[in-house]
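tool_call: predict_structure(chain=1)
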Amino acid sequence: MNWDQIEGKWKEMKGKARSSWGELTDDEVDEIAGNREQLIGKLQQKYGMAREQAEKEADDWASRQ
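tool_result:
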């Protein structure tokens, strides 16, 4: 699934995102709203990831959806 599709179906995808990244709060997941850049930023902030690692995790997650 590409990021445009994820953004369009975010209400359905929120639970999957929360199960993948449990440290994200409901409010943060709502704030992300399917936006790849927002997700990458939150992963960097919450998990202390480098940008490249956060991008890889986000894209790997998207490809599994």
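agent: The chain has one domain: 3-64. Proceeding to next step.
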